[in-house]
Amino acid sequence: MTVKKTSVIGFPRIGKKRELKFACEKFFKGEIQESELQNVAAEIRQYGWKKQKEAGITFIPSNDFSFYDNMLDTAFLLNVVPERYSKLGLNPLETYFAAAHGYQGDKGDVKALPMKKWFNTNYHYIEPEIDDTTQFKLVGSKPVDDFLEAKAAGIQTVPTLIGAYTFLRLARYNGEKRAKDFVTDAVEAYVHVAERLAIAEAKWISFAEPALVLDVTNEERELFKFIYSSIVSQIHVKTGLKVALQTYFGDIRDVYQDVTKLGFDGIGIDFIEGQKSLDLLRTGFPNNAILFAGIVNGKNIWRANYAQKNILIDEIEKYVASDNLVISTSCSLLHVPYTTESEEKLSSEILSHFAYAEEKLVELADISSGDIDAAENNKKLFAKVRTDKNAVVQQQLSKLSSSDFERVPRRIERRAIQKSVFNLPLFPTTTIGSFPQTNDVRANRSAFRKGEISLEQYNDFNKKKIAECVELQDKMGFDVLVHGEYERNDMVEYFGSKMNGYVFTQYAWVQSYGTRCVKPPVVWGDISRTAPITVEWSVYAQSCTKKPVKGMLTGPVTILNWSFPREDISLKEQALQIALAIRDEVLDLEKNGIKIIQIDEAALREKLPLRKGSWHSDYLDWAIPAFRLVHAKVKPETQIHTHMCYSEFGDIVKDIDNMDADVITFEASRSDLKILDALNDAKFETQVGPGVYDIHSPRVPLINEMVEVLHKIVAQVPYENVWVNPDCGLKTRGEKETNASLENLIKAAQVLRAETLWYKRMRVHSL
Ligand code: GLN
Ligand code: ZN
Q1: Whose CA is nearest to atom 4 of ligand 1?
Q2: Residue 409 preceded by cis peptide, ω within 30
Q3: CA–CA separation, 576 and 580 (whole Å)
Q4: In whole angstroms, how far apart are CA 355 and each of 123, 378, 618?
Q5: What is the CATH number for 679?
Q6: Is 404 part of a structural domain of the chain?
Q7: Does 621 lie in the same domain as 556?
Q8: How many distinct structural domains can be found in the chain?
Q9: Of these residues, 101, 335, 631, 696, which one is catalytic?
């Protein structure tokens, strides 16, 4: 086997120790200047490029770095910046951050742009906003700057940009005009980028077009063809750059035939998540194009099985000349951590099964070179049995029957029972669970971890915080309280750490939104609960007040979706194992007097297959039952809440209702309450708390704004079904803005109550 070329789609960009996050935070607090922040960013970029170069990667990307998000970068590059941000009169970076976070200060008061899940990952992008006055044109220079920066460091890179199709497809259109009205200008702007890159002596330009793996309508397909027939020929004629089309997160069955005819010099295809990629390849591949074959999983942290990869390569080579085959990651390595070398606590045995971004570079090199020793070692690794089996769990799973998934009595009957138990006012107010994780909370946790304080001291402190938090909510006038979640810093890691079968890392941080990261635990073996997890905290919180305090759990689908899952058993089986463990916790909470239990499924939607045809068969058919399994056995009077971090479940409203929770809270304020129509149409039964303000921004919402949101809600949802709450947990916020926001929220609920009473009275009079 000859040595093959290798390619990487994107590299982590947060910094090995999350330097970018910390630098950004200092910058926002005014503790460092922009120049210092820029230096940190440059170091992070250089580090990635050097690592890739050292590993011998042939095609190294640039412009994959971002201070917040690549979609937002592209919007700023192409002049797609709503005027409300540009007219604040801030400097360019601050304007960028204003669009990302919102801005409230002496120059104005604007909300952030909406944030959306990035395909089927746990990453979120900023949704660009286009209105009828938007004028696409090249106004930035980031791709060129990044390319030149790498070049100055002696590294020739491939500038990568989110392509015009994906950008236009994911943008939101506020006016009458649609993608087709902007496409000509957009194409021109992209060609300008290529021209500038050519002057900078780039050889390639790569367009990331993950939106091609979604279902593509005929109209969208025409748009795609229009874009690239124009872009490719113009770039060829005007610049001589080679043009690559990079796709990932699935296969491109709807446009594959077009893609092969559009004259691309390189085509990137995902052979990990692309169920049909091989079949498509078998229909033919252009002779003169390079295939960037995504065969090393960019999303999971398990080592690649070289023998299997070689079989795949052999198959691919039946259709693509060996010289034209480049071995690549399946998607950007943004979705995996930096390196297992940082991990100090995991055994070398466990670590030997892991490959983070830097180890994946080595895998690419090993596979492409066919190194015999590496192959031999890899074979030995896969010959070992990795996971722990748990006979009890296996048996419990085999005994599950349909009654384990059916809560009785039906929701309507439960509702009447619960109404008399809780006697809540109209528009009950609550929060999503966490309260600000202030420095003292973090310090307490870190002192405990370092062994500086005892378990008792740690617990006492948390209890003090809980008591204060409960008192605060009580005073503010909340109806259903929470304990504040001081004992957890992450809603998945916390539960994982209390279950058998999970493995924890120290540094496996991956970006979730902006510079915020999550550290997904790893499903290593069969999952089971070792002991009660949250009972002590919830019981203590409940002892501080007469009002109901919600027990606060994370649901099985979210725990799984925010973990690195096993690859040796199905996701369904892993979800059911976790569901059984959480069910034990639900029943223990109930036994200990907790009357309302919230089971967060913040991530249920994000692993929804990208193509509609597989939503049920590949996912919902086991995900919804997994949730039902968790709460089906509780008493009728126990109220089950769930929470989701988004509202784009319009298409699966029925499935969400079918989770059979009593109340659901979700994000809505950022997405203009689009979901309400769907709820109305579906005659949604579950009581709803569409978040009345956006907690992702430090901005304090005005009472009137929230009243307006509530007006929109009651226009579509029966008012007696409406709860009033923020759109997500408050842990990332500061105390001051949180308290101000919550006080306003309570007042907004009071306004609605008064209005509703008045309205009811008016109706009576007019009868
Ligand atoms: N209960 C969690 C919290 O409030 C929910 C977090 C989330 O939805 N991401 O923090
Ligand atoms: Zn949330």
Answers
A1: 729
A2: yes
A3: 6
A4: 20, 12, 26
A5: 3.20.20.210
A6: no
A7: yes
A8: 2
A9: 696
Q: How many angstroms separate the CA atoms of 159 and 675, rounded?
A: 38
For the Cβ of 552 lying below 6 angstroms from any atom of ligand 1, the answer is: yes
Closest atom of ligand 1 to CA, residue 434: 4
Domain match, 676 and 536 both: yes
Q: Give Cβ neighbours of residue 412 (< 8 Å, ≥ 6 apart).
A: 685
Whether 488 and 349 map to the same domain: the answer is no
Is 475 in the same domain as 589? yes
Please return the burial class of 758, using the count of CB atoms within 10 Å of its CB with bins 0-12, 13-18 and 19+.
Answer: exposed
Lowest mean pLDDT among 111-120, 196-205, 419-428, 469-478: 111-120
Nearest ligand for residue 731 CA: 1
Please tell me the distance between residue 497's alpha carbon and the centre of ligand 2 in angstroms: 21
SS3 739: helix
Question: Which residue range is the domain that position 68 belongs to?
Answer: 5-101+112-383
Residue 604 near ligand 1, beta carbon < 6 Å: no
Q: Are 194 and 187 in contact (CB under 8 A)?
A: no
pLDDT, one tens digit per residue, over 519-551 is 899 999 999 999 999 999 999 999 999 999 999
pLDDT band at 757 (very low <50, low <70, confident <90, very high): confident
The per-residue pLDDT for 650 is 87
481 C-alpha to center of ligand 2: Å?
16
Residue nearest (by alpha carbon) to ligand 1 atom 1: 433
Q: What DSSP string runs through 431-487?
A: --SB----HHHHHHHHHHHTTSS-HHHHHHHHHHHHHHHHHHHHHHT-SSB--B-TT
342's CB contacts (< 8 A; 6+ apart) are 16, 17, 506, 507
Ligand 1 pocket, residue 643 CB under 6 Å: yes
Do both 232 and 334 map to the same domain?
Answer: yes
Nearest to 80 by CA among 140, 135, 144, 142: 135
Residues 323 and 435 in one domain: no
Residues 593 and 673 in one domain: yes
Output the CA 454–ligand 2 centroid distance in Å.
Answer: 32
Whether residue 484 sits in one domain with residue 630 = yes
Taking the CA of 728 as reference, the closest ligand is: 2
CA dihedral 14→19→23→24, nearest 10 degrees, is 20
Q: Please state, in angstroms and rounded to a whole number, the distance separating the CA atoms of residues 570 and 375.
A: 27
Distance 126 CA to ligand 1 centre (A): 20
507's CB contacts (< 8 A; 6+ apart) are 16, 17, 337, 338, 342, 343, 519
Gap between the Cα atoms of 123 and 306, Å rounded: 28
* Ligand 1 atom nearest residue 432's Cα: 4
Residue 671's SS3 state is: helix
pLDDT tens readout for residues 35-81 = 999 999 999 999 999 999 999 999 999 999 999 999 999 999 999 99
CB-based contact 269:330 (threshold 8 Å): no
The ligand whose atoms approach the alpha carbon of 733 most closely is 1
Q: In a 3-state reduction of DSSP, which class is residue 735?
A: helix
| Alpha-carbon span 550 to 470, nearest angstrom | 11
Q: In 292-436, which ranges are continuous DSSP H helix?
A: 306-316, 348-351, 357-369, 372-383, 391-399, 411-422
Domain finish residue from 364, 383, 402: 383
601 C-beta closer than 6 A to ligand 1: no
**Is 643 an annotated catalytic residue?**
no
CA neighbor of 170 nearest in space, from 307, 259, 69: 69
